[in-house]
Structure formats: structure tokens, C-alpha cells
């Protein structure tokens, strides 16, 4: 493995960590509904548990309501029950074949709790990025030990990986501050 390959794989893995963070943050409920909030709610579909998005369209009806329209009429009751029993604290209502999921406004206390959860998710992402940096540096040290690269090349590569790590952590901080602002907005 060359220095360029080590840097490229580290870069790709760090950006995957950031994408995972964004995905995890999209599931955290704010005052504004997002169809992604129902992604981790699963329903029984012919004997297998699948996400709601695989058996219905999830859309925004208005600023505070999600609409779930099942592709099969008989799935409406199953989806309604799954949303009620999820840990999201939502109370859907049936309107013919459409399931309306109103998002209750968040209390100030709940907003602060969610901000703590967001910070925790961010810390996990930062730890993942730092672990990737450590792994890349270990690979470079191994290459140096095997005399595949010179000490100068190893030092330069470590500096570049550190710069990459710093950029990723700044990007994580930007994502976190945007999500915290979204949560704290009434």
C-alpha cells in the first residue's frame, strides 16, 4: 500500500463518518418534521420487518405534519400501530388511506435534552475520525519500519492526515451547530 492509498482510504472513511453523523442527526426530532424521522420505525410486511419507507410514501403535509400513504390498503392499520408503539411519542390519525402524523411542539426542557443527544452524536463522530487518523498513522509507521517509505515521507504524510482530520472535525462542528440551532429554534 502506498502513502496516497493510505490517505485516500482514510479520507473516504472520515467522510463516511460525517455522512453517518448526518444520517443519525436527521433522525433526531426537532420542531420541524422530517420524513427521515420514521426511517427506523419498522412494520411487519408479509413476515419480514421492513422500514415504513419501503411500504409507503412519507411526505410533508404541512409545517407540522407528516403524511404516510401506504401502497397497499391493508398496511394502513399496521403502519398506524407501528408509529404509535415507536419510541417517538407520536400520535397518528387515519384519514381514509392517508395517515397524518402531527408533530407536537417541543418543550424547552426537551430541546435541551435533544441538544445533549446531538453533542453526544458529534462526539462519537469525532472519536471515529480520530481513530481513523490513528489507524492511518499506524499504517505509515509500519511502512516506515518495513523501509517502504522514508522518515521524511512518513512525517509529511502524517501532517497531511492531521490536516485532513482537522478539516473533518471542523465540518462535524458545523453540522452540529446547525442541528443545535435547528433544535433550539421555536
If you had to describe this structure to a student in words, what would you say it looks like?
- Its main location: cytoplasm.
- One of its GO terms (cellular component) is cytosol.
- Responsible for the release of ribosomes from messenger RNA at the termination of protein biosynthesis. May increase the efficiency of translation by recycling ribosomes from one round of translation to another.
- This is Ribosome-recycling factor.
- The chain has 186 residues and is an alpha+beta fold.
- The chain folds into 2 domains: 3-27 and 107-184, Topoisomerase I, Chain A, domain 4 (Orthogonal Bundle), CATH 1.10.132.20; 35-102, Gyrase A, domain 2 (2-Layer Sandwich).
- It contains 4 helices and 6 strands.
- A 4-stranded antiparallel sheet has the order 3-4-6-5. Strands 1-2 form a two-stranded antiparallel sheet.
- Strand 5 and strand 6 form a beta hairpin.
- It is elongated, with a radius of gyration of 22 Å.
The CATH class designation of the largest domain is: Mainly Alpha
- Spans of 5+ residues with little confidence (pLDDT < 50)? none
Instruction: Give the percentage of residues in beta strands.
Output: 15-25%
Number of helices: 4
User: How many beta-strand segments?
Assistant: 6
> Taking strands numbered 1, 2, ... along the chain, how are they ordered across the largest sheet?
3-4-6-5
N-to-C series of helices and strands: HEEEEHEEHH
Question: Could you tell me the radius of gyration in angstroms?
Answer: 22 Å
Q: Kindly report how far apart the N and C termini lie.
A: 51 Å
* CATH architecture verdict of the largest domain: Orthogonal Bundle
Q: Globular, elongated, flat, extended or rod-shaped: what is the shape?
A: elongated
Helix fraction, binned, reads 55-70%
CATH topology of the largest domain: Topoisomerase I, Chain A, domain 4
Mean pLDDT: 87
Q: What structural class results from the helix and strand content? A: alpha+beta
> How many individual domains?
2
Largest sheet: 4 strands, antiparallel
Can you tell me the CATH superfamily of the largest domain?
Ribosome-recycling factor
Domain Ribosome recycling factor: 21-184
Keywords: Coiled coil, Cytoplasm, Protein biosynthesis
Subcellular location: Cytoplasm
GO biological process, one term: cytoplasmic translational termination
Amino acid at each position: 500500500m502506498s502513502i496516497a492509498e493510505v490517505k485516500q482510504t482514510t479520507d473516504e472513511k472520515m467522510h463516511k463518518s460525517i455522512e453517518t453523523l448526518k444520517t443519525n442527526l436527521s433522525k433526531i426530532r426537532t420542531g420541524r418534521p422530517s420524513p427521515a424521522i420514521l426511517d427506523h420505525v419498522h412494520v411487519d410486511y408479509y413476515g419480514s420487518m421492513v422500514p415504513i419507507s419501503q411500504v409507503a410514501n412519507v411526505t410533508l403535509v404541512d409545517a407540522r405534519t407528516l403524511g404516510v400513504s401506504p401502497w397497499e390498503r391493508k398496511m394502513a392499520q399496521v403502519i398506524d400501530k407501528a408509529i404509535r408503539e415507536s419510541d417517538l411519542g407520536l400520535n397518528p390519525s387515519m384519514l381514509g388511506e392517508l395517515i397524518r402524523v402531527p408533530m407536537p411542539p417541543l418543550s424547552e426542557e426537551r430541546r435541551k435534552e435533544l441538544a445533549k443527544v446531538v453533542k453526544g452524536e458529534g462526539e462519537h463522530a469525532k472519536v471515529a475520525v480520530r481513530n481513523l487518523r490513528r489507524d492511518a498513522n499506524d499504517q505509515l509507521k509500519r511502512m516506515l519500519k518495513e523501509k517502504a517509505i522514508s522518515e521524511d515521507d512518513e512525517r509529511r504524510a502524517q501532517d497531511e492526515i492531521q490536516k485532513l482530520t482537522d478539516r473533518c472535525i471542523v465540518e462535524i462542528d458545523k453540522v452540529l451547530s446547525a442541528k443545535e440551532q435547528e433544535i433550539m429554534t421555536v
